[in-house]
Amino acid sequence: MMTSKTLLLTLGILLALTPTSFAKGSKVFDALDKASSKKSIEDQRKLLKKLGSPGKLLKTIRSGRRPNDALSAGTHTETIKDSFGRSTDLNIVVPSGKSPKKGFGVLILLHGLGGNGRQLVPQYQSFASKKRLIIIAPSAKKLPSAGAAGPNGASLPGNEDTMGREMLQHWWLYRDTGFALKGLSFIKKRAFIDTNRIYMSGYSMGGYGTWNIGLRYHDNFAALVPLAGALSRRERYGMVDNQSRPLIKNGRYLPIYFIHGAKDKTVPPESDRRNAKQLKELRAPFIYKEDPNAAHNLMAFLGRGSNGKDLNNWISKQRRNPSPKVVDHQTIGKYMGRCFWIEITEESGENAHIKAKVVGKSKIEIKTENVKSFRLYFDDSLVKTNKSIKVTCNGKTVFNAKPKESLDAIIHSWQKREDPALVYSREAEIKVPSTGS
Questions:
Q1: Looking at residues 285-299, what average pLDDT do you find?
Q2: Angle at 410 between CA 405 and CA 413, to 5 degrees
Q3: Per residue in 208-265, pLDDT tens?
Q4: Structurally, how many domains does the chain consist of?
Q5: Same-domain pairing of 303 and 372
Q6: Range(s) of the domain holding residue 386
Q7: Domain termination site, one of 273, 292, 317
Q8: How many Å is the maximal CA-CA distance in the chain?
Q9: Which of 271, 290, 317 is where one domain is finished?
Q10: What is the pLDDT of residue 203?
């Protein structure tokens, strides 16, 4: 029998979940989307200021985005654009039934050379439906030419991202402005998503994409599953790619399950063997399986014995921790500075590195290499934001105060990730002290 106290509590919960509260949340996310298109921080502040204080906005954002125009169950094909103005189709499969309490997970699938977005969908569709995962699978396009204008006037350099572009009919762009993460951005606006259950898998060319996108933006993912891929096209020809190799360090805390055929001559297994060796040295959470009898077609391997079931069971167990006490991030370009609650804002050389560690509830220790400045977001699940927090960088105190709430922190932390779990209301802009200071 329901007591009066229980009844009042139940009514309170129901009132908290009224259409009015959802409508308010919708306005906040709409404002964040509009703010992202504004160049001026003042214009961005104006859009958010009228909706509430930074603390109230954070509470609304953390509750998650529930779109008014959510995609229905079934198969959909949408068109998305990347930052270079290229368009492609995005194949989407939404499981039937109600959304899970915390939202749908997302499985991003990257196809191989000569394929399209539908190539891997049959392999994963039954599993994704059972585990309440929305499949998104874009089709790759020919890479932009070297020097093509990109976001904020940045051009695409002639490095590993674009090697052999003239010879390839299409390839994955390894930037957060490419189709893979643009597709993720799209589905976050059209479905209620649990951002701690986002996975990426790719085959062959898609295996390259999974390694490279996943390691550049590792804070997005719960796990990676590259199949018959490699870290670098240069390593396809027996070379060691010293430009891309440092990315493996970003697999230190990221679960990765990768498979290769020992007889693969299309994408030889040497690069994946090297990946496994480095990940083992890092004590990373990975599984590497090499089929001694397989060539480049791994579908037979996944269908043999318990191989496919083992992989699916492993994926099912992976969840991202959005508030790690240690953040360790390696860059190989100035376009990939953000990772969880830390963001490199200016580098002083190639291959910047930052490692941040929370000590207790009132101290953060940071070590850097080739970093001039960074932005620190204060995660209230890790530190006591209502008290003074001491921050040291390379052994020197760079911040020792109670962090203040600001709209700027909301705006900055929302940009690029659009992830409710990685938004913060307090930040500090910090310059790395010089060696002699």
A1: 90
A2: 120
A3: 999 999 999 999 999 999 999 999 988 877 788 888 999 999 999 999 999 999 999 9
A4: 2
A5: no
A6: 326-431
A7: 317
A8: 74
A9: 317
A10: 95
